[in-house]
Amino acid sequence: MGWRFANPTDDLPALFRRIAAVAPEHLEWVFDCSRRNWLLIPARLSRQQLETSGVDFPEMRDVLRRTDQEYCRTANTDMERIVDCLEGHDLVSAMFRRLARRR
């Protein structure tokens, strides 16, 4: 999952890190806010893991899709829990409501 904020509040990175640590039940997830787009992704797809393996993101995504469907299903299950957790948090829920009104 990815986000780009025009004016992120200082408490958002800690919130996303906490959600990455507690919401998923099956895989390790990481939160990266070091670039313009913030990412909350399974650790196997993290920048550090990709640099270590020498594979880029699209290639790793395709390898997982072709060879490890169980990993993909498990990531989807965790992602549902992450989204539920984000929706249940007042700060994030308020952000989602503001975005919905703009559309």
The total count of helices amounts to 5
Cα end-to-end separation: 20 Å
Give me the strand/helix succession.
Answer: EHEEHHHH
Mean pLDDT: 85
* Beta strand count: 3
What is the beta-strand fraction? 5-15%
Major sheet strand order = 1-3-2
Which percent bin holds the helix content? 55-70%
Q: Which radius of gyration do the C-alpha atoms yield?
A: 15 Å
- Any idea how many domains? 1
Q: Structural class from helices and strands?
A: mainly alpha
Shape assignment: globular
Largest sheet: 3 strands, antiparallel
> Regions with pLDDT < 50 over 5+ consecutive residues?
none
Structure write-up:
With 103 residues, the protein is mainly alpha-helical. It has one domain (2-102). Helix content is 60%, strand content 11%. The protein has a three-stranded antiparallel β-sheet. A hairpin with a 5-residue loop joins β2 (29-32) and β3 (38-42). The model has no long low-confidence stretch (mean pLDDT 85).
Which terms summarize this structure?
103 residues, mainly alpha, 3-stranded antiparallel β-sheet
